[in-house]
Write a structure and sequence with these properties.
Helices cover about 40% and strands about 20% of the residues. By secondary structure, it is α/β, with parallel strands linked by helices. The protein binds calcium ion.
Length: about 230
């Protein structure tokens, strides 16, 4: 049985391009041109995956997502047009979801669709990020180190996920603040330090003594997370 994809996009040309690409790939499709219509169709629950533009009339994509998540867990691939939209999408702490930035090629989008559908078919087991002994359960805002649960606040989880998603990358503090708290948010050094201190203490308490590396004067990076 072919998967059904709901495309919610107000730009007729992009909507049509995505629709044609999906159909050519063998997916059944449904389309909506604004947020209210999109939410109504999404709530029917017949779609296996939703392609969701952020900038939409009558209800933007993020609000649609918030509404839909109260009752449905249909995976979503967001279409983002601007950097600040990407940050807001990342702020959702995506579980099985993903995003594609405009402009994108139909081929790139189809690859993401296939990956998200594949993850869904494997159940929730893949909905986790692993670094050494540290596991971040993305959908549940939960973490553990070698099986020991770590109780994290939303901000602490945000910091850890931001670092863990790009394990090679060193995040200067302002970049980390933008990712975790939202771009342009005025977060004092003290606030970030206090969240980092609490986060480190919780990691260490669970045995993860090398969870976060500080490169002085440069920034922060996820550690090897192998423990002592
Ligand atoms: Ca739009």
């Amino acid at each position: 049985m072919s998967h059904r994809i709901l495309i919610i996009e107000d730009d007729p040309q992009i909507r049509r391009t995505v629709d044609i690409a999906c159909q050519a790939h063998g997916y059944a499709t449904d389309v909506a041109g604004d947020g209210a219509e999109g939410l109504a169709k999404a709530q029917k629950g017949s779609a296996d995956l939703i392609i969701l533009d952020i900038g939409l009339p009558r209800m933007d994509g993020l609000e649609l997502c918030r509404n839909l998540r109260q009752s449905h867990q249909t995976p979503i691939i967001f279409l983002t047009a601007r950097n600040d939209e990407i940050d807001r999408v990342l702020g959702l702490e995506l579980g099985g979801d993903d995003y594609v930035s405009k402009p994108f090629s139909p081929r790139e989008l189809l690859a993401r669709i296939a990956a998200v559908l594949r993850r869904g078919a494997q159940g929730q087991s893949d909905d986790a990020l692993r670094i050494g002994g540290l596991t971040l359960h993305l959908g549940r805002h939960a973490a553990d180190f070698n099986g020991t649960p770590i109780d994290l606040t939303r901000r602490e989880m945000g910091i850890l996920m931001t670092l863990a998603r790009r394990p090679q990358q060193v995040f200067p503090r302002p970049a980390l603040v933008d990712q975790v708290y939202g771009i342009g948010t005025d977060v004092s050094d003290r606030t970030l330090d206090s969240h980092l201190r609490n986060l480190r203490a919780k990691l260490v308490a669970a045995g993860c003594t090398d969870g976060i590396e500080t490169l002085h004067g440069i920034g922060l990076r996820i550690g090897a997370c192998r423990g002592a």
